[in-house]
Design a protein that fits this description.
- 40% of the residues lie in helices and 19% in strands.
- It is an alpha/beta fold.
- β5 and β6 form a beta hairpin.
- It is globular, with a radius of gyration of 19 Å.
- It starts with a helix and ends with a helix.
Length: 301
Amino acid sequence: MSSHTSNEIHTDPKCFTGLDVYAVAGNPISHSKSPLIHHEYAKQANQAMHYGRLQPELDGFADAAKHFFASGGKGMNVTVPFKLDAQAFADQLTMRAQLAGAVNTLWIQDGKIYGDNTDGAGLVRDLLAQGIALHTARILLIGAGGAARGVIGPLLEQSPKCLVIANRSPEKANELVQIFAGLASSKEVALESRSLLNLESPEKTPYSFDLVINATAAGLSDQSPLSPAALINIFTPSSFAYDMVYGKTTAFMQQALQRGARISDGLGMLVEQAADAFLLWRGAELAQFIRPRAVLAQLRS
């Protein structure tokens, strides 16, 4: 590996005298669009800062994060596969990070490391910006891993009619229903779990959905979590299909198109969750200056 490449994926705050330094940590990380997004926000809000990449070894997140903050780093976004490591690394978690069970945003304040999860808020804002009504909607969330858990709380806060979590192993979906039962009850949302197999049965899936979110990584390998039999029960032409994977029309999105549904990838979620992180780091008052949808349009062009 050349030193040039090494610098690109191992941001050292000591190399940027006079600038506040931030980074996104993941493995792999060279493909990440986060530096571009945050540099645009810094430009819009007139902030002097540097945002780079960090690629810890798979078992080395805590050491890399410790070194980054000890060297003067101010904040870090965290992506696959380190969101659980980031949760363990933080001294103090926000309520939504506790509920999400994972951390995607870290920052240092008065010598303590704080952890938050902005993924769910980013998803909700992207959906609302695309004109998707969440209040009283029937929502199907596919997957029960960290990506799914991170968005359940913010989705429930929108008071949909129901939120059904479907997963290959229904036990994991059941676990999430139990974790979020209190919040669902307070928002009067019917929160249920299903196996992916259940979705093929009209008796077990008696209604279609307004919004279907794929929170599995199946799209990365051109797979879909949904069988052809399930599509008939799930989608109508008025449905909206959202895949958290971005940058391609996934197999899941293609299935939705075949049923006449509208589709979106997850690029808007990435841009919106980054806006939340930027404001946590630089100050909420900068919200009036940053324009996430303009940054999204730039990435899409």
